[in-house]
Design a protein that fits this description.
Blueprint: H1 2-8, H2 26-35, H3 40-43, H4 46-50, H5 52-80, H6 88-121
Helix pairs in contact: 2-5, 5-6
Length: 126
């Protein structure tokens, strides 16, 4: 009975595009979602499609890299954007955009982590 409760209680970070672990076709929904997070050339590699946990690992690395890029863009914007001759209003808008993107990417990173844990827990990495 506790197993049933565990499988139906999802983390708040669980992506809505992915079905509940243990439900019919949930791994396929996880694979579809994860494929959207990696460059198309990786998403088409057979090994990554056959082994969703491997795809999840690559998505984790990809999203971590994107978080670093957004963080760098945000932290350097105030110093580097004025040199490009951009108006202050554009610079402020860009800083807000980078901050929003960073928040979104951090949420996606947490979502990938919980999906990866679920995939690894269900033995799909073989």
């Amino acid at each position: 009975m506790s197993m049933q409760v565990t499988t139906t209680r999802l983390s708040p970070d669980w992506p809505r595009q992915v079905k509940t672990p243990g439900s019919y076709d949930w791994e396929r929904s996880a694979t579809r979602w994860l494929r959207e997070l990696v460059p198309a050339r990786y998403a088409s590699y057979p090994a990554l499609i056959r082994h969703p946990v491997l795809l999840a690992r690559h998505a984790q690395i990809q999203v971590q890299h994107e978080v670093r890029v957004a963080r760098t863009a945000l932290h350097t914007a105030r110093a580097e954007l004025p040199v490009l001759g951009l108006p202050e209003s554009v610079i402020e808008h860009t800083i807000k955009l980078y901050a929003a993107e960073l928040t979104q990417l951090q949420h996606i990173a947490r979502s990938v982590r919980v999906v990866t844990e679920a995939l690894a827990g269900h033995g799909t990495g073989r």
